[in-house]
Automatic annotation (TrEMBL):
It comes from Emiliania huxleyi. Residues 60-147 form the Conserved oligomeric Golgi complex subunit 5 N-terminal domain. Keywords: Coiled coil, Golgi apparatus, Membrane. This is Conserved oligomeric Golgi complex subunit 5. Residues 199-301 form the Conserved oligomeric Golgi complex subunit 5 helical domain. Its main location: Golgi. The keyword Coiled coil applies.
Length: 303
C-alpha cells in the first residue's frame, strides 16, 4: 500500500511542467502523512519510502526552480509593482492617520469651544435673570420706602379692637399722602404680579411685602370710606382724592359704577320715604296743600 502511494507521487513528480505536477497532485488521492508512515513501518519499507520521498522532493524543487527561472523577469516586475503599491499604501495610511488626527483635533477643539460657549451663554442668562431680579428688588424696596414715608407723614391711629396696652395699630393715611401711596402701591402690585414667586425666597423683601399689603388694604379701605362720605356730604375735595386713588390703583371704573349704583339705590329709598312721610294734615288741606307738601319733600330729597 505504501509503495503504491509512493508510485503515484513519483508519477506526479515525473512530469516536466510545474502546472502539470500541481494538477496531477490535485487529481491524485488525498495524501495522509501519518497513514503513509504507519504503512511504511508496518511493511518494513521505511528506508525505501524515505528515499522515494527525497527523490520526489528533489524533482519538485527542480521543477519549482525551473518555473521561477522561466518567469524571473515577470516575477521581478510583479515584486517591483508590489513594492510600489506598498509605498503608496504606506503613504495613504500616513495621510489617513494625519487626516484622522486632524479630525480628532478639530472635533476636540470644536466640542470644547461649543461646551465653553454653551456654559458662557447659560452663565449670561443667569446673570441677566439675577440682574433683572435685582433691579426689581431695588425698585420694590424704593417703593416700600416711599410707602413708609407716606405712613410716617400721617398719624397712626389705634384700632377700635385694641386696648391701651394691646399695641394693636392700624395704618391711617392723611388725604395728602393717600394718592402718593396709591401710585406707589400700583407699581408694587405690578411687580408682585410678575415676580412674586421669585421674590418669596428673598429674606430682605419678605417684611416689606407684608407691609405693602397692609398699606394696600388700608388705602383701599380709606378710599372707600372717603368716597361714600364725599357722596353723602357732597365734599368735592374728598371726592376728588378718592377718585384719584382709585384711578392710580387701576380700579376707577369699577368703583364709580359701584358708587353710582349705591347712590341710585339710596336715592330711590329717600324718594320712597319722602313720599310715604307726607304730612296727613297737608293732605287734608286739599289738592294744593298736598302738592305743596309733595314738592317740599322732593326738594328736600334733591338737596
Amino acid at each position: 500500500m505504501a509503495s503504491q502511494l509512493i508510485a503515484n507521487l513519483e508519477a506526479c513528480a515525473s512530469r516536466d511542467d510545474l502546472g502539470d505536477i500541481c494538477q496531477a497532485i490535485e487529481e491524485a488521492p488525498s495524501f495522509d502523512q501519518l497513514a503513509l508512515a504507519q504503512l511504511a513501518i508496518a511493511s518494513g519499507e521505511a528506508e525505501v519510502t524515505a528515499a522515494a520521498l527525497g527523490r520526489i522532493e528533489s524533482r519538485l524543487g527542480a521543477a519549482l526552480g525551473a518555473h521561477v527561472a522561466a518567469r524571473y523577469s515577470e516575477l521581478i516586475t510583479e515584486v517591483d509593482a508590489v513594492r510600489s503599491l506598498e509605498a503608496r499604501l504606506v503613504q495613504s495610511h500616513s495621510r489617513v492617520e494625519r487626516l484622522a488626527a486632524t479630525v480628532r483635533r478639530v472635533r476636540t477643539t470644536t466640542v470644547g469651544q461649543h461646551e465653553q460657549l454653551s456654559g458662557r451663554v447659560s452663565q449670561l442668562e443667569h446673570m441677566q435673570e439675577c440682574s433683572s431680579l435685582l433691579r426689581r428688588v431695588q425698585r420694590l424696596l424704593y417703593l416700600c420706602w416711599r410707602l413708609h414715608e407716606a405712613v410716617d407723614a400721617s398719624k397712626a391711629r389705634r384700632s377700635a379692637g385694641g386696648g391701651a396696652g394691646s399695641g394693636a395699630w392700624r395704618i391711617e393715611l392723611s388725604s395728602a399722602e393717600l394718592p402718593k401711596a396709591a401710585v406707589a402701591l400700583r407699581e408694587v402690585e405690578e411687580i408682585l404680579e410678575e415676580e412674586e414667586e421669585r421674590l418669596d425666597g428673598v429674606e430682605l423683601v419678605a417684611p416689606e411685602l407684608q407691609f405693602a399689603r397692609s398699606v394696600g388694604a388700608a388705602v383701599r379701605r380709606q378710599a372707600d370710606g372717603m368716597l361714600r362720605e364725599a357722596l353723602r356730604s357732597l365734599n368735592q375735595p374728598s371726592l376728588t382724592t378718592a377718585l384719584q386713588v382709585f384711578f392710580s390703583l387701576g380700579c376707577l371704573r369699577d368703583k364709580v359704577e359701584e358708587a353710582v349704583a349705591a347712590a341710585a339705590a339710596s336715592l330711590g329709598t329717600d324718594v320712597s320715604d319722602a313720599l310715604t312721610n307726607i304730612d296727613a294734615r297737608a293732605a287734608r288741606g286739599g289738592r294744593a296743600g298736598w302738592v305743596a307738601a309733595l314738592w317740599g319733600q322732593v326738594e328736600a330729597v334733591g338737596e
